[in-house]
Amino acid sequence: MTDCSASNFSSGPSENTSLSRRGFLVGAAALAAGPVLIAADPAVAAQELPDFPADVSLYRSAYRNWVGEITADGLWACAPAAAYQVAEVVNWAWRHGWRVRARGSAHGWSPLTITEGTASDASVLLVDTARHLTGLSLDSASAVRAGTGVTMEALLAYLEGHGLGVTAAPAPGDLTLGGALAIDAHGTAVPAQGEQRVPGHTYGSLSNLVLSLTAVVWDESAGAYVLRTYDRDEADCAALLTHLGRALVTEVVLRVGANVNLRCVSRTDIPAAELFAAPGSGGRTLASCLDASGRVEAIWFAFTERPWLKVWSVAPTRPLTSRHVTSPYNYPFSDNVPTVVADLVGRMTSDAAWYLAPVLGNAQYDVAALGLVATLSADIWGPSKNTLLYIKPTTLRVAANGYAVLTTRAQVQQVVAEFTSFYRERLAAYAALGRFPVNGSVEIRVTGLDDPADAELDGARAPLLSALRQSDTHPEWDTAVWLDVLTLPGTPYAEAFLRELEQFLLRTFDGEHALTRVEWSKGWAYTEEAAWSDEEVLGTAVPASLGEAAWGQAAGTLDRLDPHRVFGNGFLDRLLH
Asked: Is 324 a catalytic residue?
């Protein structure tokens, strides 16, 4: 087996190693601030929202998604203090013809919360979950009860304090649990060779850990929306486990297991040609690292030749060369935009100097290679939370597309090789025409699929709309390769380039030896001008990838639980029609 261990680590910056280590910008911290709240004039509120529940305060609030491509000013918003108040608010909205959109941290790209162009006088009410719906308690030694407004960082810290944890989690700690579950959020993990799943854990999405959930749903006999709790073995629960914002869940109970210590080794010395080589090429391939550790992420900056590779492995005791980390976010050079990167981004966005994309890519690589050494973070070890969470809101904010390719574990390297070869060829072809559509990175992760048995509950249902739901026609598929391409918002030719990538994925991994599904929270359904706009992808490819029966069951259930479409927006109306 090829060695992916720390003994082979080399910072190896191959291009401009003279990058200054001084000073990181904190200007991006302004982007990390919570929603701007403007107290409502009671008289205006009474006029515009008559008979609104008196015990729920109203305010005006802006909305801004992660990268600022979807924004709205001055929407009405509220923060119910308890689940019963959420139901009161929803009933008010139904009676007055308003729509309700749950808001957590707004750390997403796609128009699942609100759509671009939503006017300040639209009949859209934001329900902020992160202010009060944050309760945490243990239901048992292997189950945690959590409000959906709690952040992933707070949840994992609470679990850690009780000796519990999860196998994998999304890298940003500011995500709310409700937002993560709505879009089947995931980390990166498959079993290493010889590794057995630990009870209470899953290699699939966070949605696969749900034991029960409480949602606001329509009750025909009551003639109103009510709170109802669904166990994982109920048919309706299958649609709510990953609901895309077409429902509102207030609380969940998650299966959890014993926490583990993880070692995370970063490398920047393996050439992309070797890491992403065709199967059978030998060398230090992504598949060999998967076999060794089961947990990998490759970050390949545009126009560079050596990715930043992270390899996690279970390590009960601290390896001799590892630095013990007692808190998350251990890559400050990534979480705080360095001056050299900020200056390049400024020139590109302000002066339309998009031709600097290769310079920016190499600068980002150098920052990573040098920063890993300078901050002693190339080999870190500690409780799982401290290596799993590594993205703060102060990082460089870029647009992202996203796909999951379902395949067998044995075919992972083939999928990666085919994708990266096409990406490299098309990027070079665009550059030859003086076009630079990508100035961020390609990110590659690998996970298992959602196996309901991991919930350890008889009759547990699979999340119907999870990209990680097992295939009905290919039960041998056990793995998903996640592929994301990141670039600055507004980059010319980006949509056309990403459309080519998407069409390649849909064409190449069409359900024969592998299958492409979209990553809900990111960019997909590209035309040459915009994401989430290609009618064939929206209306045909996406439902087909999940199976027409499962798609119809999910859409029908969500419609029945919310027949008045209080939970929804124009985009979801098109998608889940």
From this structure: no
**Alpha-carbon distance 568 to 98, whole Å?**
10
CB burial class (10 A; 0-12, 13-18, 19+) of residue 3?
Answer: exposed
**CA 109, 111, 117 angle in degrees (round to 5)?**
115
Active-site hit among 201, 445, 461, 469: 445
Q: Do 553 and 433 form a contact (C-beta atoms < 8 A)?
A: no
Residues β-bridged to residue 479: 407, 448
Residue 132 Cα to chain centre, angstroms:
23
Q: Is 195 tagged catalytic?
A: no
107 is catalytic: yes
pLDDT tens-digit series, residues 195-223: 999 999 999 999 999 999 999 999 999 99
Set 443, 495, 502, 519: catalytic member: 443
Distance between CA 86 and CA 202 in Å, rounded?
Answer: 31
Catalytic pick among 297, 418, 500, 502:
297
Which stretches within 494-576 are classed as H helix? 494-508, 535-536, 542-546, 548-561, 570-575
CA gap 74, 38 in Å, rounded: 8
With CA atoms as reference, report the closest residue to 391 among 171, 104, 169.
Answer: 171
Tokens of 412: 């992972």
> DSSP letter string over 458-504?
TTPPPPTT-TTBPPSS-TT--EEEEEEEEE-TT-TTHHHHHHHHHHH
Structure-model confidence comparison of residues 485 and 15, the more confident one: 485
219-249 pLDDT per residue, tens? 999 999 999 999 999 999 999 999 999 999 9
Q: Position 516: which residue type?
A: T
The active-site residue, picked from 60, 99, 107, 284, is: 107
Q: How far apart are CA 409 and CA 203, in angstroms?
A: 13
Q: Is 162 a catalytic residue?
A: no
